[in-house]
């Protein structure tokens, strides 16, 4: 998926778990999910999932999420907490994590009923946005980079065919996004990648 990535094999994953968390070594292990860009996931027994970053930026995320997600609870929806951290070794260069398995299917392949899902998701986001960012938490300096990505997207959007998307609508939304003034309030936590493939649905 990426140049130079570390796509952990099942044998590597099992060896890392056995060496660092021997109490989990006998649990069944199987790879799950084929579309994650940052992590390779292995279901570990019935109740756990192991996350192995593909690239250094994913490794930084493992430590970031392990440190900060527990401070955001309680939230009205389950979030993927890391309850145990693994360390790099000679066979694998990144920290990795194990946490509870969250049941469900991704919302891209199993879209929820919008009438019930939208209020639930809105409440989750409202609660998340009521968590002020603590002074010792990292503040991502991505606003300028995001603006550059919006500018770079403009010529690509203009070339869309009608079957690929509504170019006029997308360009209108892009213009509105670029005109949005900087946020002037107290920094709060947000979900940085609220994509259907990053949401789980049940029933």
Describe the structure.
- By secondary structure, the protein is α+β, with helices and mostly antiparallel strands.
- The protein has five helices and seven strands.
- The strands form two sheets. The chain has a five-stranded antiparallel sheet with strand order 1-2-3-5-4. The protein has a two-stranded antiparallel sheet with strand order 6-7.
- α4 (143-158) packs antiparallel against α5 (167-179).
- The longest helix has 16 residues, at 114-129.
- It is globular and about 55 Å long.
- The two termini are 31 Å apart.
Condensed summary:
This protein is an alpha+beta fold and 203 residues long. The protein is built from five helices and seven strands; from the N terminus they run αβββαβββαααβ.
How would you summarize the topology of this molecule?
Layout: H1 10-20, E1 29-32, E2 39-44, E3 48-53, H2 56-68, E4 84-86, E5 96-100, E6 105-106, H3 114-129, H4 143-158, H5 167-179, E7 200-201
Antiparallel strand pairs: 1-2, 2-3, 3-5, 4-5, 6-7
Report the major sheet.
5 strands, antiparallel
Number of distinct helices: 5
Mean pLDDT: 88
**Proportion in helices:** 25-40%
Main β-sheet, spatial strand arrangement = 1-2-3-5-4
Topology as a string of helices (H) and strands (E): HEEEHEEEHHHE
> Which class best fits the helix and strand makeup?
alpha+beta
Shape: globular
Oligomer: single chain
